[in-house]
Specification:
Layout (H helix, E strand, L loop, with lengths): L1 E6 L4 E8 L7 E9 L1 H5 L6 H23 L8 E7 L3 H18 L3 E5 H7 L12 E6 L4 E8 L2 E7 L5 H11 L6 H9 L24 H14 L5 H30 L3 E5 L6 H14 L2 E3 L10 H13 L26
Parallel strand pairs: 1-4, 4-5, 6-9, 9-10
Antiparallel strand pairs: 1-2, 2-3, 6-7, 7-8
The protein binds 5'-O-[(R)-(carboxyoxy)(hydroxy)phosphoryl]adenosine and zinc ion.
Amino acid sequence: MQVLGIESSCDESGVALVQWQAAEPPRLLAHALYSQVDMHRAYGGVVPELASRDHIRRVLPLARQVLAEAGSRLGDIDLVAYTRGPGLAGALLIGAGIGCALAAALGKPVLGVHHLEGHLLSPFLSADPPQFPFVALLVSGGHTQLMRVQGVGDYTLLGETIDDAAGEAFDKSAKLLGLGYPGGPALARLAGHGDAHAFTLPRPLLHSGDLDFSFAGLKTAVATQVRKLGLAPSAQQRADLAASTQAAIVEVLVRKSMHALRQTGLARLVVAGGVGANLALRADLNVACAKSGVRVHYPELHLCSDNGAMIALAAAMRVQAGRTIPERGLTFDVKPRWALDAIDGS
Ligand code: KG4
Ligand code: ZN
């Protein structure tokens, strides 16, 4: 089965072709990505209307590129998958509209996929794929969640952020440090030159006893430190503050993940979402998991952020597991707000 995946929930247009054969590991035949980062940078964040308009321009050329790279033809596609939600409504509608039109024209079925399920299953495309069950730490720009994952589509929410997501904490702190958009990778780079102990920053909800997160207070603390540093902080002061901020976010994510593993009695952790690309997080998780005898899995670095491969893969895995029957026809909807643990109830 060849699945064409289309991702357009935010500021990346992603298209990929994944091959799925029962009893064989899934294979990424080709994938292509167009990031809108340069366009949104001028505005300091994603402008939804501009995002939608740009997805319209990119998706079909990306699909042509992917088919050419894979050496496949339109007729080889067995299933079209698109991101149904959560995300920006207008942006989602572009991928959904193109995906459904393409499937209808080809006479093939189509499936709308949950964006976070795509992230969560993306490590199955890595060289070291996980096995069910596992605890998943989902850390993206809009979500921070710990999930117990029993199988495809079988997700129990263990805890989540009560305010900002981890990615948002990176992005907002980066903005305060004058790093612009998108802040996460820039803050991580600056942190590499700084001392993580230079500033004392809060670790919100670290000892709350539950698996919830809160990052809004951390952002306020970073804002206070930036104000104290005045108008012309030195390069070293900025790097130290970046390193201290990253350390605070990473410590909370690592401690809560280990808590979730103890609570569930599971010995396998899957990390997914854009913040999963953070190397400090990976290093600290590797140490903590090794100490506790836990196997930890990550997506390939280039599949941590939004992409079409994870959407194609999630669709293939859902069909294979008998979780969903893809539809035929021209009706579709999108779900800008959509809880992952309610995925099969809607
Ligand atoms: O999963 P993703 O690409 O999009 C969403 O579904 O939200 O995640 C994007 C988030 C952004 O907040 C971005 O700053 C963050 O992931 N991010 C990082 C790194 N790379 C991306 N944060 C910290 N360190 C990184 N290396
Ligand atoms: Zn995402």
